[in-house]
Design a protein that fits this description.
The chain is 33% helix and 16% strand. By secondary structure, the chain is an alpha+beta fold. α12 crosses α17.
Length: 566
């Protein structure tokens, strides 16, 4: 779809002349790992090494992505998973595109009022922790579907590395040890059987985490494929856990779960083609709306122009997140008006109230009038030697999901039900408001912010990008793309750059520590923006194809993310 936008004079974006001296908060320029043929970038070095090994064995990008996904389920259990779901965006070497939706689904017994009390008020944390917080997992079915369509190596070869990591264990860093110690109380509170593999000791740096039950589950998946998870002992373990904890996922839910191949969203930004995920992801629509609005505004990260860019970006974010609340949902259950939301005239109309010198109060922003028309997740990016590319984002939703570990099977269940609109106007855990379109319904997929994305330039692969981060995912992907295309950064430099985030509600600009100079803060506050400092925003893992054909990885230093390749 063409996303042309009518030009505006950049002078409207400039700050008053008396303001001076603003400098852009940038990291020292760095270069990421550069390889000749292939690369994997993921949230954990062990998982990246698994993907590299698969590629060295002759596997393609999808093979490597499957192996990385299962490895992350072992070494990065706070978000890597077999108890959650996600999205694949795939670009084959000849330039064909595919996207796979393996998002979790509402159980068949789910209903719109399931998180409300007798007075219609939201029951605190019921959609966040415990057995009712979990949607039907889609990750295993998604990996099976991807392998059936695109896999080249035997399925068993892709699962075995994860089995080895689970059965033999891996050594914890200080950060990982602290993470499990912090999660111990929740695991014991919300799991019906104490998951001693996680809670049985006070973890310290250098301890080895062995997950015997998970290794057995992965072995069943290796030997039986989909039936190793959605039927037999593992399915029975899941249902038994639900029955003990008051959950509603049934054997019928597991049997009926199906991931779905969908047409990816494809848009144009200047010389770049954007291939991204459509509904039930809101992320692809958000970045295409933002790029479609911004494309004819000259933007810069230099001096006073950087404040003008951040103001512009914030104003775009407030409008697209208002649209998200009103119009975006699972398109199998709600007619998401994709073409209307990306229409040039519509995007122009949304920005008629834009004031380059003043923030628009969110109370004055609602969803647009459509024209008549026919933070815990993980991401990995893969490019193989043949030129195939995969951008994959998977999630449990919050860190450690619902904190329910399935006894006997050894994996953590998601808390994705919180991504439904559990009550219109009630924010989810990321502060995002929802409406009727995204209400809880049986079998429905909850709206997501995950934004796996691939870019082309001149018909050739250019970039593979994505990130975790809840509602900050689309804005982090957007900023990384802009850092490279508009600000001339390399991949690692673009990933390292300090990030800003805003949405419709709450009415603030969040920024990472060290992102603001005094002058930049003064410039934004003078426009009426409220600023709040927070911890790291997103953990982008990306790959950039350089002009000479080599690949540069961008592994986010906010985590222990790592690039591997050859």
């Amino acid at each position: 779809m063409n996303l042309k936008f009518i030009p505006r004079k950049f002078g409207l974006l400039c700050l008053v002349a008396i303001w001076y001296g603003c400098s852009t908060p940038q990291e020292e320029s760095v270069t990421g790992l550069i390889t000749e043929k292939a690369m994997v970038v993921s949230a954990h070095p062990l998982a990246s090494d698994v993907g590299k090994s698969i590629l060295q064995q002759g596997g393609n990008a999808v093979d490597a992505a499957i192996a990385v996904h299962f490895a992350l389920a072992v070494v990065y259990p706070e978000a890597g998973n077999i108890g959650g779901g996600g999205f694949f965006v795939i670009r084959q070497k000849e330039g064909t595109y595919h996207s796979l939706d393996f998002r979790e689904r509402g159980p068949l017994a789910a209903h719109p009022d399931m998180y409300l009390d007798e007075n219609g008020e939201v029951i605190d944390r019921l959609s966040l922790k415990g057995h009712l917080a979990s949607g039907v997992p889609g990750a295993v079915d998604g990996m099976v579907k991807a392998h059936e369509k695109f896999g080249s190596l035997p399925w068993a070869d892709l699962i075995q590395p994860a089995i080895d990591l689970a059965s033999e264990g891996f050594v914890l860093t200080e950060g990982e040890a602290n993470k499990f110690n912090r999660a111990k109380e929740n695991f014991q509170q919300y799991s019906t059987v104490d998951p001693v593999q996680f809670t049985g000791k006070d973890w310290v740096t250098g301890d080895r985490l062995v997950q015997t039950q998970l290794a057995e589950t992965l072995t069943r998946i290796r030997d039986l494929g989909r039936e190793g998870f959605y039927a037999g002992p593992v399915a029975e373990y899941i249902v038994a856990e639900m029955e003990r904890g008051g959950g509603i996922i049934s054997l019928e839910d597991l049997e009926k779960y199906e991931s779905t191949w969908r047409d990816p969203l494809v848009g144009q930004y200047k010389d770049y083609k954007i291939i991204t995920m459509g509904p039930p992801s809101s992320g692809g629509l958000i970045i295409l709306q933002m790029l479609g609005t911004m494309k004819d505004y000259p933007v810069s990260n230099k001096g006073e122009d950087y404040a003008a860019y951040l103001h512009l970006k914030t104003e775009m974010e407030r409008r697209v997140y208002a649209d998200r609340a009103a119009y975006m949902a699972d398109s199998d259950y709600y007619p998401v008006p994709i073409e209307a939301l990306l229409d040039e005239a519509y995007l122009k109309s949304r920005f008629l109230t834009f004031d380059p010198e003043k923030a628009t109060p969110s109370a004055e922003i609602q969803e647009g009038q459509l024209l008549s028309m026919s933070e815990e997740t993980t991401h990995f990016s893969v490019v193989d030697p043949m030129g195939n590319a995969v951008s994959c984002t998977t999630t449990l939703n919050g860190g450690m999901g619902s904190s329910v570990v399935v006894d006997g099977a050894g994996f953590i269940l998601n808390n994705e039900m919180d991504d439904f609109s559990i009550k219109p106007g009630h924010p989810n855990m990321f502060g995002v408001l929802g409406g009727e379109a995204n209400k809880v319904e049986p079998g429905k997929r909850m709206l997501s912010s995950m934004t796996p994305t691939i870019l082309e330039k001149g018909g050739e692969l250019y970039m593979v990008v994505g990130t975790p981060g809840g509602s900050t995912i689309p804005t982090s992907v957007f900023q990384t793309i802009v850092n490279v295309i508009e600000f001339g950064m390399g991949m690692q430099e673009a990933v390292n750059e300090k990030r800003f985030h805003s949405q419709w509600q709450p009415e603030v600009i969040s920024y990472e520590q060290g992102a603001l100079t005094g002058n930049l803060q003064q410039a934004l506050e003078s426009k009426g923006h409220v600023l709040t400092e927070r911890s790291g925003i997103g953990r982008v893992d990306a790959i950039l194809r350089l002009p000479d054909g080599r690949l540069e990885g961008g592994a986010d230093p906010r985590g222990m993310d790592a690039a591997a390749g050859f």
